[in-house]
Amino acid sequence: MRRTRRYKDIERLSFKRFFAVLLVAAMLVGCSKEAKTPDPENGNFVDVHALREKNSDIFAWIYVKDTDINLPLCQSSDGDDYFYATHNADKEPATNACAYIEAANMQDMCDFNEVVHGVAPSELEKFLDKVYFDDHQFILVYMEGNVLAYYVIAAYTTEGTRLVEKYDFSYAYGCQQFIDDMYSQRSMTNIIRPGWEQGLSPEHFLLTMTAPSPSDPSKQILVVGCLVGDPAGQIDREIDWSNPEDE
User: Fold this and answer.
1) Residue boundaries of the structural domains of the chain
2) Any signal peptide, and if so, which residues (predicted)?
């Protein structure tokens, strides 16, 4: 089994397009801590520490400009992967009130693919429109002492199997399988951003927002972002290049 440990510097396309967002993210880390709704244009950010004091399951905040994707990001401390599908960030019964990850993902956002549930399906369905997709390029994840910027590279529908069940992201083998499947999606409603049709590898860091398709509950919508901003330099992981089938 061969392992490497690195933070891979992503090959950015049109770097100037990203620079303003990365600069804002770096500035936000040093802002005074006030619990406000995030608004990158005005320098406001979420005080995740204060939110964690109210509910220790909250570890971040996910935000996409000019959308309703502006939600606390949770993970059940009890290991209940479905708790926040039916509860809000105050642990009260509700739906689509917060985003959440399953126990298979880590709160430090260092997994190959952070799979985010709980975003309203109607919000993700909008990304299947090419004009909307082109106009909404970044996903920001506010954390304690850091703001991660993900560039939205793909939006498509696929079978309804849970991603963490379908792919073993603990191995490079499973990561590459996800990448290959993403690249194989080709239809009028399956979009890959120009210039990103190839080049991804298990060394990258992805965030995938997923929800059941409103038009076909047997399928799910995936909106995939690739990490392009990590001002605090905290995102790193070990990569297992062995094939689990050989063990």
Assistant:
1) 1-13+35-230
2) 1-35
CA atoms within 13 A on the CB side of 191: 24
Q: CA 160, CA 94: separation in Å to the nearest integer?
A: 23
> What CATH code would you report for 1-13+35-230?
2.40.260.10
Question: Can you give the pTM of this predicted structure?
Answer: 0.87
